[in-house]
Amino acid sequence: QVQLVESGGGLVQAGGSLRLSCQASGDTVSNYAMGWFRQAPGKEREFVSRIKRSGTITSYADSVKGRFTISRDNAKNTAYLQMNSLKPEDTAVYYCAADTSALGSQRSPFEYEYWGQGTQVTVSS
Question: By CB count within 10 A, which of 70, 96, 97, 112 is most buried?
């Protein structure tokens, strides 16, 4: 079983940037596709981004495409989410997730087996 811990969240003004990190332990992150999800108050958890085990195939929600970038560093056992041009509607708790399956689009939270505790991102305007 892998444990995931997110960091890097905080308060930022609209148009600013944040870089989220997801540190894995208990297993090597190279064994997993990694995803980022977010959940705002009163809303369901939604897909943000996914990166395959290869580290070269990525996917993004339409709402963040062109602004967010997912990456991974298997040597450091860490996944990242670079968030640029942040908007107030990006405010949410952001969760890192890991999936052992190499199949599927991995855009659904039901595809993922392991989750971090979440990190708060607040964008002011």
Answer: 96
Sign, CA torsion 115/92/19/35: positive
Q: Average pLDDT, whole number, for the chain?
A: 94
Buried b (16+ CB within 10 A) or exposed e, 71-103: ebeeeebbbbbebeebeeebbbbbbbbbbeeee
- Listing from the earlier edge strand, what are the strands of the sheet with 68-73? 3-7, 18-25, 78-83, 68-73
Question: With 90 as the cut, is the pLDDT of residue 30 above it?
Answer: no
Amino acid 31 reads: N
